[in-house]
Amino acid sequence: MTCTIVAVHGTFASGPPEGEQWWQTGGTLEKKFRILLENNGRSAEDLEWRPFIWDGANSEASRRAAANRLADELIELDSSARPHLVIGHSHGGSVIASALVELTRRQQSLSNLTHWVTVGSPFLAFNRSPSIFQRLGTIGQIILISIFVFAYLYILFFIDAFDALDAFGAVSEDNPVESRLGVSLFIVAPVLVYFAASRMWDFVSNRRDASRLAKTQALFQSRFVPLWHPDDEAINGIGMASRSKVEFFTKGFFANIFSGVALFVVPVLLVLSLVLNYDRNDVNAWLGISDRSLLAGLFDPDNWLLYIVFVVVPEKLAELDWTALATVYLWSIPFFLIGISFAVFYGTKLLAAGVSPLLSSLLNRLTTSAIRTKAGGVDVGGLSLASVDNVPGWISDQHEPIPPEVAEQIKKRADKMAALLVSQFREQLGTLSIGGVPTGSNSSPLEFELAGELIHTTYFDSDSFCSHLFQRVIPKPSDAEQGTSVEG
Questions:
Q1: What is the pLDDT of residue 158?
Q2: Cα-based distances in Å from 413 to 29, 226, 361, 459
């Protein structure tokens, strides 16, 4: 009986259906499986190969969109009543797992699916924000903000139009405390409704998701075949990113910045006072000065700061018959400004010493969050990367990595390819040091294309791994005749 294999590639591996890649028709794994079929007394024609192509972006949204399409394809394939299995590498395994959850939602059990296999797949677990706003997409956020703006505009209009809500008893001259309380509650009502709705949505979503994952586990856990190398760079790397806590910004980082800025505060204010012109009559009216003194005529800047320092203060001192003091004051202005500069500098430094650790901690948190988001491709609203595992979170069975002898063969092959890359790198460095970049060359002098240098990308190049995979998932002849499959 023909067995159909759906091959789901991972991140950055999209391309045409036919080619040399493991998942493509005519690729590495299909060729090896057909040889293994013939070596086990089967016909190579017993295998139907179906590559499943998605955009391969490092994006949770892309993976979920691909999962919906894969669910459609698996439903169609299952209706043919032929045994089939699906194999996914890297995030292709995540696509498969999400597709199975979607199939559970559609109440599809895929009775003809014999196995679903994940190879070197990092399964991401997420923390979900309880806030409705963060879970919504851009359009939803715009709508929610518009609703809030309209609600508060309506409240302001409501308060103004009805003479402070006398008609509703919210405001009363006899009960000012109760009146203010009523207006305050009226204003915060939309916020309270928002938080209540967020909590309710979070509660309902968690219960729904838990129920759906439990059903998915009951339907598909027994057919799960996870294969991974203990030193897989993708799984370990994203896992490390999910646990990392970045400390780029030291506690005194902002203290130094603020202190440096404080040196220029007073000079900048003086310059701005020359640029930002204010009407002197307005200043006179504000300070209660009706006539101008000789000093005001001699020093006539049209700005508030210098006018007050050089004109207003001396005039006030003169009015009090403190002319000598006014003279001393004018000569002391430079020293006064120097004193202000020192006070601003050291005051800012003292304040920054207390604020800087808080700001640095905030920036470190934001940086850590950005690294985790980038590593996991988390671009779905309201989600943040929590952890990474070798199996989906709804799988309860314990699984082990691939056998040590298979893992060793994969590692040796990756090490061999990495050694060739180092040799190539050394040669290009030598060429660059002797003659530089060739004239007219459009390529980088140190340009490399990674392929089999990583364990994560070497699985299907290993004959021992492909043989191990074949034995785990391909039905034996006797089983195929009965339309069943067993793990080898």
A1: 63
A2: 16, 21, 43, 9
